[in-house]
């Protein structure tokens, strides 16, 4: 679920829509505006699990409370994903009330109609990655212990064994990741969410200041770039330890 705690897995099926059920749900406020960690960073402390076969959703809160059940939807709603309209339906059940109580603000849970539509860049960002060397470089520039936590950037894949920001050179050419083939289309511009601790949601590292200082004047498709994203050309399974062939 967008804005909630991340799930770490050993294997995914990467399809043209991205990883199935990645960001299958998102949150909106009373005015219908998309919610992300910049407004409610503490949501990173809540974890979610969705079982597609049974249509069940489970939320786990930091106090140990679990809210779970079968998902049902009702009214139609369109959410603005940074200029891209995403049609969906309001999820009915206990989840919106539980998240609203935790966040201290009235929020509503939404399920996009189209699988994969809840990914920020849609199919043009169906995959994303950054290298461990780039995380080490960022730590060096920030003066902190390397590497910077991968989870801050909420990307799908981390790659080892390449040089610092070498992934920037992959734009525009097909890359094989495990059994899948992807086509990087652009850099991923970073926002204030990356300044937040991925466990607490509280800002504790000024990643934006650091990126501006050492990457603010490089050629890029988006400002303050860190990591790349693009399309999935050929679906396939990707497992931890699989080779990446550029």
SSE topology sketch:
Elements: E1 11-15, E2 18-19, E3 26-29, E4 47-51, E5 56-60, E6 66-70, E7 72-81, E8 84-92, H1 95-103, E9 107-112, E10 127-131, H2 132-142, E11 157-159, E12 175-177, E13 180-189, H3 207-215, E14 225-234, E15 236-239, E16 244-245
Parallel strand pairs: 10-11
Antiparallel strand pairs: 1-2, 1-15, 3-9, 4-5, 5-6, 7-8, 8-9, 10-14, 12-13, 12-16, 13-14
Q: How would you explain this protein's 3D organization?
A:
With 246 residues, this protein is mainly β. It folds into two domains: 23-119, no CATH class; 124-245, M1 Pyruvate Kinase, Domain 3 (Beta Barrel). It contains three helices and 16 strands. β7 (72-81) and β8 (84-92) form a beta hairpin. The longest helix has 11 residues, at 132-142. The relative contact order is 0.18.
Can you give me a brief rundown of this structure?
This protein has about 250 residues and is mainly β. It has helices at about 95-105, 130-140, 205-215, and strands at about 10-15, 20, 25-30, 45-50, 55-60, 65-70, 70-80, 85-90, 105-110, 125-130, 155-160, 175, 180-190, 225-235, 235-240, 245.
């Amino acid at each position: 679920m967008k804005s909630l705690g991340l799930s770490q897995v050993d294997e995914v099926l990467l399809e043209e829509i991205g990883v199935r059920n990645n960001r299958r749900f998102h949150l909106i406020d009373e005015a219908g505006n998309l919610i992300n960690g910049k407004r409610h960073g503490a949501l990173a402390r809540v974890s979610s699990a969705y079982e597609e076969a049974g249509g069940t959703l489970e939320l786990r809160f930091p106090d140990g409370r679990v809210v779970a059940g079968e998902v049902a939807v009702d009214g139609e709603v369109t959410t603005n994903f940074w200029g891209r309209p995403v049609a969906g339906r309001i999820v009915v059940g206990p989840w919106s009330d539980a998240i609203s109580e935790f966040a201290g603000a009235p929020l509503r849970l939404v399920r996009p109609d189209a699988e994969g539509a809840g990914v920020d860049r849609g199919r043009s960002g169906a995959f994303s990655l950054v290298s461990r060397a780039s995380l080490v470089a960022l730590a060096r520039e920030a003066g902190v212990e390397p590497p910077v936590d991968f989870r801050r950037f909420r990307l799908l894949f981390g790659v080892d064994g390449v040089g610092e920001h070498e992934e920037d050179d992959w734009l525009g050419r097909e890359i094989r990741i495990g059994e899948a083939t992807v086509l990087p289309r652009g850099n991923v511009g970073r926002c204030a969410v990356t300044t937040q601790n991925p466990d607490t949601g509280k800002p504790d590292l000024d990643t934006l200041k650091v990126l501006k200082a050492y990457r603010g004047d490089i050629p890029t498709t988006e400002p303050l770039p860190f990591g790349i994203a693009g399309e999935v050309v050929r679906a396939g399974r990707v497992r931890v330890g699989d080779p990446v062939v550029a």
